Task: structure prediction
Amino acid sequence: TGSEIQGYKPNADSNGYLDIGMTEINKPYVIYIKTPLNFGVQGEIINRIELDAKSTTGKHVGGNASASFDKTKVELIEKEGKYDKDKQEIEWTITYNPSGLHIPKEDAYFVDKPTYNEYVEGSMTVTPNLSHTVTPDGSGGFKFQFNEDVKEPVTITYTAKKTDTNANWVKNKVTTGEQTVEPQVDTPNGGGGNEGGGEGGE
Result:
């Protein structure tokens, strides 16, 4: 295995050309480059690299390579829940931007609408804790709005209280942009109540 080299300062220009800042190359190197994806981009993503250098004899040497992947559909939100029968509560966990896109703040939001449960205000944790605003909708749900661009996955966890003690399941519909997920959690309690049947996502 190799070791990380120090002292070089890569510099990228506005055309995407990257000068890695090395004055000489006399052995193989592995270079890792991380580039955030732009929000809303669809189709094939291609990254090309070209090496241009001059040998000790003054001869130009180089090579090129490329890699790509198909970004036809990238999930913007994931959600799951866990039921605590004793407390009659559900712990919901949302992963926003699991692919680590660069999402502008005006597009960085989601709407949460529950069925047979309601958001417990003050129970939410956000990791990493990016600036955000939570606005309850008055019917047990809320709108979550980031106040800054989102460039990494964010985990939001909160508690919801079961509103129908006879319900055998609860659901929670989350919508962001054109994507919707609606996970269902079974909440057995030995009573009658509603009938099961929920959908995962669309």
